[in-house]
Amino acid sequence: MKLVWLICAVAAATSVCLAFNIDTTATRIFTTEQKDFFQNKVLQLLSDKNNGILVTAPEQLGHEETCTSDLNLTHNCIIVPEIWPEHMQVPIRQFGLSISEDAMRSQITVCSPRAVHPHSGNSSLNKVCYKMKLDRGPSTQERTNKSVEVVFLFDGSASMTEAEFNKNKVFIVEIMGSLRDTPVMFAAVQFSSTVHKVFDFNDYAAGRALDKLMKDKHLKTLTNTHRALEFVLDEIFDNPAAGASPDVTKVLILITDGDPSDTDRNGIIRRYDDKNIIRLVIGVGAATLHKFRAIASEPKHRNAFKIENYDGLTGVQKKIFTVEGCTAPLAEFSGFSAVFKKDSLIVGSVESNSWRSFLHRPQERMQGYLGNSISIGKKNGVPLYFVGLPEFEQTGQIVFRHHCIHWTEVQKIRGEQIGSYFGAELCSLDVDSDGSTDFLLVGAPQFHLPQVKKEGRVYIYSVSDETVLESNQDVTGPSMGRFGTTISSLPDLNGDGLRDVAVGAPLEDDKSGAVYIYHGNRQRGIVSTFSQRIMGKNIDHGLKFFGRAIFGDLGEDGLPGVVVESRGAAVVFRSKPVFNVLARLSFHPENLDALSPDKNVALVKITACFEKVEATKSKAGPVSSALNITYTLNVTSQASQSMFSQTLKLRDENTCVSYSINRANYVDDTSTPLRIRLNFLQPDSESASAVLSVDSEREAALEIPI
């Protein structure tokens, strides 16, 4: 049995986008033989070396099958050689029905639910998973099986309180604790106007690091960041006396709450680049994003984090060392699922005949639980594991809380309709990206409302501080289509600071499929009305089961991208930048001369100004960020009414237009003011390169006394 990966390189082109802001006009579609890619899974790859998507082919057999189809020069196809378990020759079927990527994007786990073991004239089905390295450039944990040296460089300037300074220490202790008993070595340096070593690799190896860290005093002066970087390189990373080794992966984690007080006069960033030292930078509070991002290693948009205060360090730890993910089962063996959690691989296994199965970690097994779908999370520092049982007494859901080495069952929630397949898909949602799970979304793709011809429902549960799921709302699919077959947490699409959600309905519209985009909401998890509906047939008439799997991530342009899988194809979407626009009205002169004998002179000049601010975090240039609006200016008096309308391209942050109002047309009764009203909208968002935010106040009003 072979695993076939279709690695399709995505050209780094700036795409223009759509009807809210996922672009459906400039997509990339990667296809191959549909029969090989039945129930395939998809991941998006974004790194320094490879940009593209990874697609498994569970039905691929034999070297004679090659990836030809309609692939063109922008795509590459790689067939991975045959893979066998180490100590046995057993046939493996449907390899690639489940894939999961670790948090550092350095390895994936690929699983099959059908490893056939013959014995005594009979055979049994077992499950098998392989962990595989990805050659995609340096990342923090890519070589954790080899030696890794990590230096914490933390800010001790006077701008932070003692409590905030101590949160730095807590963060360092938690990171070291999560990587205890691994080949990772740690050192720490505090910097301000001066720089001093807190502990080095020798101290860590000897068990002295924690004591030295706790006793370290707050320096409380300025922020000489570049001088501190030079100290770390010379005195720690390149210093054998500090326990450093020359042939290991080296990682710097910089934590700062202010911009550097010094400049890079000695070219220290270039020295770090030359030595391939990975640099993760965490900016807190007032730290300016573009200034500390310059210190981070490539890709900078992934290795620089901005948080509002030191409480957010927990969330950053999760971004660096953990993953919060969703899996996408369909039918048959597709419920076999796996996700990464820190250094644990969580595997859900389905016994196809009895529907009795288990959830287990390496070297740990719990009988009696069906791991059809798995999602993970964290609340108050406690890891959470959610496991779906879509066929348990026709419906069901189980939540586990994990304490160290013990599993504790917290809660069971039953579905409301027999046969709805409640729990077939789970997605834990950290809506505000603070490192704490806020909601659990549960798919019931076969929930049926025959009277109104609707199928599929997503249930949203909030996760309380007491680690209890509380019903919040539910969203039903708008048509027949197995809505809720897939649920995926996406990066913030519209720039409101909240993660968004995509829901797949792969059987909608005669099995061509559809994907629904929902914006995040702090109180409800998601806004109940979808912001965008992407129909498979509108992308390509040949697509079938569009929306079977969905994966979202940030692209090189700083904007989210979404990969949607259908049978035998994967479609890559980019998103557009979103802008807030504020309109202001003013007039001149302030004192109007309404009694002038010349009625043809200008009575007043009205100026309408539009202030444009990007809500998203794109790296778009001035051309791609231009925004077209159509505005209407109504001028009303007791004697007359006029309307001015025009389409305007907003290229700069501020764009103004002016109109002169003649005395003859508007001055009849000086006791009645002139009333000015401005309305504007975006005329065609689908073909535009940028999108007007739905939160923009699209009108302004003014009264001018005469």
Automatic annotation (TrEMBL):
<keyword id="KW-0812">Transmembrane</keyword>
<comment type="similarity">
    <text>Belongs to the integrin alpha chain family.</text>
</comment>
<dbReference type="InterPro" id="IPR013517">
    <property type="entry name" value="FG-GAP"/>
</dbReference>
<dbReference type="GO" id="GO:0007229">
    <property type="term" value="P:integrin-mediated signaling pathway"/>
</dbReference>
<keyword id="KW-0479">Metal-binding</keyword>
<keyword id="KW-0401">Integrin</keyword>
<dbReference type="GO" id="GO:0007160">
    <property type="term" value="P:cell-matrix adhesion"/>
</dbReference>
<feature type="repeat" description="FG-GAP">
    <location>
        <begin position="408"/>
        <end position="470"/>
    </location>
</feature>
<dbReference type="InterPro" id="IPR002035">
    <property type="entry name" value="VWF_A"/>
</dbReference>
<keyword id="KW-0677">Repeat</keyword>
<keyword id="KW-1015">Disulfide bond</keyword>
<dbReference type="GO" id="GO:0005178">
    <property type="term" value="F:integrin binding"/>
</dbReference>
<keyword id="KW-1133">Transmembrane helix</keyword>
<dbReference type="InterPro" id="IPR013519">
    <property type="entry name" value="Int_alpha_beta-p"/>
</dbReference>
<dbReference type="Pfam" id="PF01839">
    <property type="entry name" value="FG-GAP"/>
</dbReference>
<dbReference type="InterPro" id="IPR000413">
    <property type="entry name" value="Integrin_alpha"/>
</dbReference>
<keyword id="KW-0472">Membrane</keyword>
<feature type="domain" description="VWFA">
    <location>
        <begin position="149"/>
        <end position="320"/>
    </location>
</feature>
<feature type="repeat" description="FG-GAP">
    <location>
        <begin position="471"/>
        <end position="525"/>
    </location>
</feature>
<protein>
    <recommendedName>
        <fullName>VWFA domain-containing protein</fullName>
    </recommendedName>
</protein>
<dbReference type="GO" id="GO:0046872">
    <property type="term" value="F:metal ion binding"/>
</dbReference>
<dbReference type="InterPro" id="IPR032695">
    <property type="entry name" value="Integrin_dom_sf"/>
</dbReference>
<keyword id="KW-0130">Cell adhesion</keyword>
<keyword id="KW-0732">Signal</keyword>
<dbReference type="GO" id="GO:0033627">
    <property type="term" value="P:cell adhesion mediated by integrin"/>
</dbReference>
<dbReference type="GO" id="GO:0008305">
    <property type="term" value="C:integrin complex"/>
</dbReference>
<keyword id="KW-0675">Receptor</keyword>
<keyword id="KW-0106">Calcium</keyword>
<keyword id="KW-0325">Glycoprotein</keyword>
<dbReference type="GO" id="GO:0009897">
    <property type="term" value="C:external side of plasma membrane"/>
</dbReference>
<dbReference type="Pfam" id="PF00092">
    <property type="entry name" value="VWA"/>
</dbReference>
<feature type="signal peptide">
    <location>
        <begin position="1"/>
        <end position="19"/>
    </location>
</feature>
<dbReference type="InterPro" id="IPR036465">
    <property type="entry name" value="vWFA_dom_sf"/>
</dbReference>
<dbReference type="InterPro" id="IPR028994">
    <property type="entry name" value="Integrin_alpha_N"/>
</dbReference>
<dbReference type="GO" id="GO:0098609">
    <property type="term" value="P:cell-cell adhesion"/>
</dbReference>
